[in-house]
Write a structure and sequence with these properties.
The protein is built from ten helices and 18 strands. Helix content is 25%, strand content 28%. The strands form four sheets. Strands 3, 5, 6, 9, 10, 17 and 18 form a seven-stranded mixed sheet that branches. A six-stranded parallel sheet has the order 13-12-11-14-15-16, sandwiched between helices. The chain is of the alpha/beta class and 349 residues long. The protein is globular. The chain has two domains: 183 residues, Alpha-Beta Complex (Quinone Oxidoreductase, Chain A, domain 1), CATH 3.90.180; 131 residues, NAD(P)-binding Rossmann-like Domain (Rossmann fold). A hairpin with an 8-residue loop joins β7 and β8. α3 crosses α4 and α3 packs across α9.
């Protein structure tokens, strides 16, 4: 396949607001040994993009420090973790039959080679991402989904949101028949949690509000709790036997309010802090009930492989809220920040 020498890309040269996103012309990256070059068909927008751009992750011992996902960013940095596209070239040592295949890229940079490795970096933060016409990726991080019935936009919606959701569900050891609480249910991770938990045979109680309640119910939630009213009281009414597993991307006050609602041996999994990173709770509700509070950052290679199996079989149906051209990346991020949508926002490079 012919590949041009330059490409359009959106990158940041410093931390800041949407104004630091710049559309520019850069050289198309050459795939190194063990890498492939992917022509980007669609790239989804995530909270990680906003927080990386803002430098909002902090660092151990310095929560106010400007930081990318896992530390200082090497600027300039092309944003975008979630890529679906086609392989157009391969580096040395990579099977050439990959060229022309439709793929999804696992955006994680792992701490080791094993199947249960932990993500310690992210495409778009620790390495260049997919807000561009082309991106390179390690060949073992590229998953062939040529046969998937999902659209490119739906495939792009998977890596961070559905990868994070599946990581939470696996770490929670969710079992069929359990009752699950999902916070932030209208967002990309929230919709993913509802769909995967339902596919696993769980009963889903979701937290949402206003005009988003009906779409959240349509996504598969059995009960929807309105976060504008007394949340704990509504959860008790929806799940009088208690919650087995909480899948939480909100944190903040919800953790303290929600822990007493867990059943014996319940698991509370946190993978985000939309409601605030400061948490206060009664520790007796944790240890007296053999409850577990579990942190979950994205997925392992094993989790991502399971996710790609679901994608090939079309067993999940990502909801795409809106699409934008590359030159309107700042508008796409602004739309995400307003949180008035349900599902994923996708950019077309």
């Amino acid at each position: 396949m012919t590949v041009s020498e330059t490409m359009r890309a959106v990158r940041i040269v410093e931390h800041g607001g949407p104004e630091v996103l710049e559309l520019t012309e850069v050289a198309v990256p050459a795939p190194q040994a063990g890498e492939v070059l992917v022509r980007v068909a669609a790239v989804a927008v995530n909270n990680t993009d906003l927080w990386t751009r803002e430098g909002a992750y902090g660092r151990p011992g310095d929560p106010e420090a400007l930081s990318g996902w896992r530390g200082p960013i090497g600027f300039p940095r092309i944003q975008g973790a979630d890529v679906a596209g086609r392989v157009v070239a391969v580096g040395a040592g990579v099977d050439e039959s990959l060229v022309g295949r439709r793929v999804v890229v696992d955006p994680a940079v792992y701490d080791s080679e094993g199947p249960d490795a932990n993500p310690v970096g992210l495409m778009g933060s620790e390495r260049d991402g997919g807000y561009a016409e082309y991106v390179t990726a390690a060949a073992e991080r590229v998953h062939d989904v040529t046969e998937s019935p999902l659209t490119d936009d739906q495939l792009a919606a998977l890596p961070t949101a559905y990868g994070t959701a599946l990581g939470m569900i696996e770490r929670a050891r969710l079992r069929e028949g359990e009752t699950v609480l999902v916070s932030g249910a209208s967002g990309g991770v929230g919709i993913a949690l509802i769909q995967i938990a339902r596919a696993r045979g769980a009963r889903v109680v979701a937290i949402s509000s206003g005009s988003k309640i009906d779409p959240v119910r349509e996504a598969g939630a059995h009960e929807v709790v309105d976060r504008a009213r007394d949340i704990a009281e509504q959860i008790r009414a929806a799940a009088p036997e208690g919650i087995d597993v909480a899948l939480d991307v909100v944190a903040g006050d919800l953790v303290g309010e929600g822990l007493p609602l867990l059943r014996e041996g319940g698991r509370w999994v946190v993978a985000g802090a939309l409601g605030g990173s400061g948490v206060t709770f009664d520790v007796r509700r944790l240890y007296l009930h053999n409850a577990q509070l579990i942190g979950s950052a994205m997925h392992t290679p094993t989790h991502f492989g399971l996710l790609m199996d679901l994608a090939r079989q079309g067993e999940i149906q990502p909801v795409v809220a809106a699409t934008f051209p590359l030159e309107r990346a700042a508008r796409a991020q602004g739309e995400l920040a307003r949180r008035e949508h349900v599902g994923k926002i996708v950019i077309h490079p």
